[in-house]
Fold this sequence. Notes:
The chain is of the alpha+beta class. It has helices at 7-18, 24-38, 67-76, 82-89, 98-101, 104-107, 111-120, 152-173, 188-198, 203-209, 214-228, 233-243, 258-262; strands spanning 43-50, 55-61, 96-97, 124-129, 137-145. It folds into two domains: 4-177, Beta-Lactamase (2-Layer Sandwich), CATH 3.30.450; 188-262, Arc Repressor Mutant, subunit A (Orthogonal Bundle).
Amino acid sequence: MVALSEIASHALQVGEALADVPTVGALIDRTLNELARLLESPLVSFTELDFVTRTAATSFRPYLPGHSVAVDGVNEILDEHPVFVWYYKQRDWAAVRLSDLISWAELTQTRLFREVLVAVGGQYMMTVPLADPASGRLICFVVNRSDRDFADQELDFLRRLQPALVALYRRLSMPATRTSAPVPTLTRREQAILKFLASGLTADAIGRQLPCSSATVRKHLQNIYSKLQTHDRLTTVVRARDLGLIREEDLSTDFEWDIRRNLLK
Length: 265
């Protein structure tokens, strides 16, 4: 991480580097990569929490098979999650460090620590929201480490970068910007698989619908990832929506939350 005196200018440089992303999906993808690199984090994620339904959805980078259990675990213990409670109870939505919200001794006694953080290898955590939690949702990037806590200057860096991320997210979330990027050409089979993906089906379920083997479906998925420049199913669906490759009515009615959990399996 850069020296404390260089944090402001470095955050500005990162914000400028992200300014040319064409879609929300691209913003998520590139920001995850940048946070992992700059903060030396082996685990970064894009997370959405719904304060009304008390549900959460997370896309990990990298994604490992055991992460789906952790996502389900978060959904079950939101009322005990220090970050959830923090943003739910007050209006300050600046980036926070988990260790500033709860002591290590208290954290190790929680289900969050035992069932989620240890499982994903992310006992130390920072969160940077992209939208005001007063809207009823917490949309944020999360950075994790297992070997050491994040330093004050690392938290300061996130807080200085946050305004740029918020501005980009707001601009790219506007409907008028969704079709501004060049649209990749998908084959008819890839288009069909993409629609099944958006409806919430796993690779095995898509294979039964077509019909074809799940291995064939995964091969098509890899081709779709390559064309859309994505690395996982969450950002693929988001980017496809942004580019107009799938319509809102193609999405699962649970798209905002459940599909993102299911597609990680």
